[in-house]
Amino acid sequence: MLTRLAEHRAALRTLVLSLLPLVLVAVIYRTIGLASAASLTATRVHVCDLRRLEMRWAGISLDGRPATIHDWLQRHSSIALDVLCSLPYGTFILVCIAFVAFASFRDASVARQFGWGFLVLNVLGFTTYCLYPAAPPWYFHAHGCAVDVAAHASEGPNLARVDGLLGFPYFGAMYAQSRIVFGAMPSLHCAYAVLIALDGWALFGRAWRTGAVLFAAWMAFSAVYLDHHWVLDAVAGGALSVAVFLLMRWVSYRLKHGVSSRL
Fold first, then answer.
1. Residue 203 and residue 191: Cα distance in Å, rounded?
2. Integer angstrom CA distances of residue 170 from 22, 85, 132, 167
3. What's the predicted TM-score (pTM) here?
4. Could you give phi then psi for residue 59, rounded to 5 degrees?
5. What is the spatial distance between Cα 128 and Cα 183, in angstroms, rounded to a whole number?
6. Which of 98, 136, 144, 191 lies in disulfide reach of 237, CB 3.0 to 4.6 Å?
7. pLDDT in tens, 212-251
8. Which residues pair with 65 in a beta bridge?
9. d(Cα 248, Cα 145) in Å, to the nearest integer?
10. How far apart (Å, rounded) are the C-alpha atoms in residues 53 and 235?
11. Is the separation of the CB atoms in 226 and 85 below 8 Å?
């Protein structure tokens, strides 16, 4: 009984410490948003050059002209797909917290690795937003190639329709608080889902592994369908997660064996 109580206390302590990086991310996000907005100039924002790159690597033909998959999806959108794709977008933070809680009671090292990896992932993502400010697809569809640094973040037309269905501005209020408009590259939504699959692989059984992979694919499709990210953004987000996962594994290995060698 006492042993089990001690295990639960240790797991709760791990949970709190592993959630700390997620709290730090929220603080950093606000700070980076203010700094990014203050230093942003129209000449630094990538809109149509990024769209041309998208068409080069993941483009399609629409009405006999080069286009992106977003152009086709916006033309063929439906309220059913709007709702389906809003689910991972509306719950990604809860999913991350749930994974930390799950890992804390299964393997403390995985919980810590994910928590601090989440922080590193976001710092790298926010830094990229500052160095390579990129407009999302919804911005192009709303404003074209013209850059307006005073533009406000938007939930986009698809999530706006979901808000209309809900009867209150859930996504509208969420994006109204965002200070980063030109933060399409990389997609951190996609990165989070991939990082969960990578860190959770050793803890999950076959069914949960399949679920984690499907959730990452669902998130990637949603990011593109909702007009929030280019395909290239989703790929970059996944690649960034792989790099962070490998980095955190290396750091954990070095810390573990470094301590062991000193002992």
1. 19
2. 21, 14, 29, 9
3. 0.93
4. -85, 165
5. 8
6. 191
7. 999 999 999 999 999 999 999 999 999 999 999 999 999 9
8. 62
9. 39
10. 13
11. yes
